[in-house]
Design goal:
Blueprint (H helix, E strand, L loop, with lengths): L1 H6 L6 H15 L8 H16 L8 H24 L4 H14 L4 H18 L2 H21 L36 H17 L3 H18 L2 H24 L7 E7 L11 E4 L15 E10 L12 H4 L3 E11 L11 E14 L8 E9 L1 H20 L6 H12 L7 H8 L5 H4 L1 H28 L5 H22 L27
Helix pairs in contact: 2-4, 2-6, 3-4, 4-5, 5-6, 6-7, 7-8, 8-9, 9-10, 12-13, 12-16, 13-16, 16-17
Protein name: DOCKER domain-containing protein
Keywords: Guanine-nucleotide releasing factor
GO biological process, one term: small GTPase-mediated signal transduction
């Protein structure tokens, strides 16, 4: 430390400071030095030596040493907390993340903790989060090289992989960074790790963005074997994408909002923890102060209507997302559920501080918006959802016949107090227009028009898919559909044109059309 201080003409020993912090962080990143009394004593001895050095008393050396030992103790305290929570993987990773974030300006230190987090995620089987840690490390190195004009791309090249990548822009360039030996070769090695990690996480769509960074380097170096392997990986990735789109068998994430209430501690006192069973608003003043409360609510990714057409695949609907939604049913009478004419629901949209997937699984909720849906709004919402589900099934490359028939049965079966016709009876009748507003009634009629069209297409597809043993079942669906359309026609006093009821010159194509009058 003293030699480095003299070398800088008694200004700083930043290089040694960084080297020591990096070395200590690497030693304790796996909870190795935690709680060592001798290590703490050695820090005190270093401070004493610095304060007793007469030749340095009039310089900033003692305060520099004090700052270094204080920073080391901060790291040690954080790792002591890690030891306390080593059986709680989520808390452990949160603590590691806090250290990684505190070193955002120093690439090598941040990299140390991101690498440690990646190892922990792999150990826990959290492959998407591990992949994101590797991507952040690669982006950090790329940005460093880009600023040094040693690589053509920086953070911007990774934004299609994760929108969280801007975190790496906090890196600072200082004299101590001359000891960080990042080269193009180091970056290439990390990019190759990213490709492997994204494959294991089944995030096949992202591999191409990493490959775009590797290909120019391989080509310039004439590394044709690596190019061949990379293109083979891309070929397999695109095949996998087609496979999972057709099968729908890929788990990209399930999301829950977890809320904690009360002054109680969770720890080992599990008997004082109570689970709040519903998703209703919680008034902390009404809770028993002796207990700790936890509320777990299933949430789904949320998109504005203008965004939905852009989200065509399950991957697009589950990647780079930070808005989530859940709904709470209620009635004005106080009951949770009631008839369609009294059923309301509260839609809550949450905003998280970072997008999923992220370098950790727990992300803070930083915003919340609520909308109250009246009964007619609930009807519109439910009918839109049914129509969207049918349309999605019908537009699949390989239609899942079982799912299609299940949805069809729920849509066209004539039920007295439930299903689509319950909404039609409750809200589309002439005398209901004034009660619910002509604009809302018109919107619901438009939704029913699209719903009937979707059912027609679904029946057409089902007819072409079924074998002889399901012919009778299909005829039942057709019969129910005709009854549903007839009743809908009676409710709105409009003649419905059913070409399928007449001799059809093209029996392979069956169409139903419904013309609704303006509200």
């Amino acid at each position: 430390m003293r030699n480095n201080f003299e070398f800088t003409k008694r200004k700083t020993f930043l290089r040694t400071h960084l080297q020591i912090i990096i070395a200590v962080s690497q030693l304790i990143s796996d909870v190795a030095l935690t709680g060592s009394s001798r290590f703490q004593e050695s820090l005190s001895i270093i401070n004493n030596f610095a304060n007793s050095d007469k030749t340095m008393k009039s310089t900033g050396f003692p305060s520099e040493v004090k700052g270094l030992t204080k920073r080391i103790r901060t790291v040690l305290m954080a790792t002591a907390q890690m030891r306390e929570h080593e059986r709680d993987p989520e808390m452990l990773l949160d603590l590691q993340y806090s250290l990684a974030r505190s070193y955002a300006s120093t690439p090598e230190l941040r990299r140390t903790w991101l690498d440690s987090m990646a190892r922990a995620h792999l150990k826990n089987g959290d492959l998407s989060e591990a992949a994101m840690c590797h991507v952040h490390v690669a982006a950090l190195i790329a940005e460093y090289l880009h600023r040094k004009k040693l690589f053509p791309s920086g953070l911007s090249a990774f934004k299609k992989v994760t929108v969280n990548i801007d975190e790496e822009a906090a890196m600072k360039e200082d004299v101590g960074m001359q000891d960080v030996y990042y080269t193009e070769e180091v970056l290439v090695e990390h990019l190759e790790v990213c490709v492997d990690a994204l494959w294991k996480a089944e995030r096949y769509e992202l591999i191409t963005h990493i490959a775009k960074l590797l290909v120019p380097v391989y080509e310039r170096r004439h590394e044709y074997e690596k190019l061949s392997r990379l293109y083979e990986t891309l070929h397999r990735a695109y095949n996998k994408i087609m496979e999972v789109i057709q099968s729908g068998r890929r788990m990209l994430g399930t999301f829950f909002r977890v809320a904690f209430y009360g002054q109680g501690k969770f720890g080992n006192f599990l008997k004082i923890v109570k689970i709040i069973q519903d998703s209703n608003k919680v008034n902390p003043k009404e809770l028993d102060s002796r207990f700790a409360y936890i509320q777990v609510t299933f949430v789904k990714p949320f998109f504005e209507e203008k965004e939905e057409p852009e989200k065509k695949t399950d991957f697009e609907k589950n990647h780079n997302i930070k808005h989530f939604v859940f709904e709470t049913p209620y009635t004005l009478s106080g009951k949770k559920h009631g008839g369609v004419e009294e059923q309301c629901k509260r839609r809550t949209v949450l905003l998280t501080s970072s997008s999923f997937p992220y370098v950790k699984k727990r992300v803070e909720v930083v915003g919340e918006k609520q909308a109250e849906l009246k009964p007619v709004d609930v009807a519109i919402d439910e009918m839109k959802a049914r129509t969207a589900e049918l349309t999605k099934l019908c537009s699949s490359l390989e239609v899942d016949m079982i799912q299609l028939q299940l949805k069809l049965q729920g849509c066209v079966s004539v039920q007295v107090n439930a299903g689509p016709m319950a909404y039609a009876r409750a809200f589309l009748d002439d005398n209901k227009t004034n009660q619910f507003g002509s604009k809302k009634v018109k919107e619901l009629r438009d939704v029913f028009r699209r719903f009937v069209e979707a059912c027609s297409i679904a029946l057409d597809i089902n007819e072409r898919l079924i074998k002889e043993d399901q012919f009778e079942y299909h005829e039942g669906l057709k019969s129910n559909f005709k009854e549903m359309v007839k009743e809908l026609s009676d409710i709105i006093h409009e003649q419905v044109n059913l070409p399928a009821c007449l001799p059809n010159p093209n029996p392979e194509r069956m169409t139903f059309t419904l013309t609704l009058p303006p509200a």
